[in-house]
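This section describes the prediction task in plain terms. A model, or a person checking by hand, is given the sequence of a single protein chain and must write out its three-dimensional structure as a string of tokens. No templates, partner chains or ligands are provided. The sample shown here is typical of the held-out split.
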Amino acid sequence: MNYDLIEEEGFKYIETKGGPENLLLLHGLFGALSNFQGIIDRFGDKYNVVVPMLPIFELPIIKVSVSGLVDHVGAFVKHKGFDKVHVLGNSLGGHITLLFSLANPDWIKSITLTGSSGLFENSLGSSFPKRGNYEFIKEKTEATFYDPTVATKELVDEVFDIVNDRGKAIRVIATAKSAVRHNLSDKLHQIKAPTLLIWGEHDTITPAFVGEKFNELIENSQLHLVPECGHAPMMERSDIFNNHLADFLEINT
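The expected answer:
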């Protein structure tokens, strides 16, 4: 089922309104609504699944940072009047999830992280030396997944367009550098909400040992490693991912 993109008071988002429990999904640096299609299809009728578009490319350059994106999420949740949220983040979205949860523990009903940054991550790098090289971007995008065919031409084109837009590229670099500065190893013990960790065994961006470290540092957490899977389990192995998520939400709803 497709949902219209809502634009109001500086926010862009979709909302399924499928149930009383709010499931907030936060995408990564190169993410989009399509990254969460499997979750939306599975849970949209039972939960109020809400996906805000993070303004990575719209924020004034002086505010481009992980902290700026966390502030945006906080303003969005306040705008919607949500009392409690189950929050799920992939990659950079997981990092934002953690910072948002640390700043607003009373809003958090549960946390789900998949391929989250915050401890260690590889990326496209600190610059784009091959910005005009489509094959280079294609290879980097395919490396996100265990099965490179998951990186459709549409997905590669989206990343290529971002990288070759100077303003967007600058914001990607600034956000990535900000994420590296916000290492959370000394703060994760403060997370008390039930936390689900779903990691691809073949994740090359935030390798499986990162998920294991999150599991060690977050007290009330459980880790599931997904075989033959890379950095985005909710896309590449959506059935396995959604089954773990369903079980977790059932217990924590």
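For orientation: Confidence is low (pLDDT under 50) at residues 124-129.
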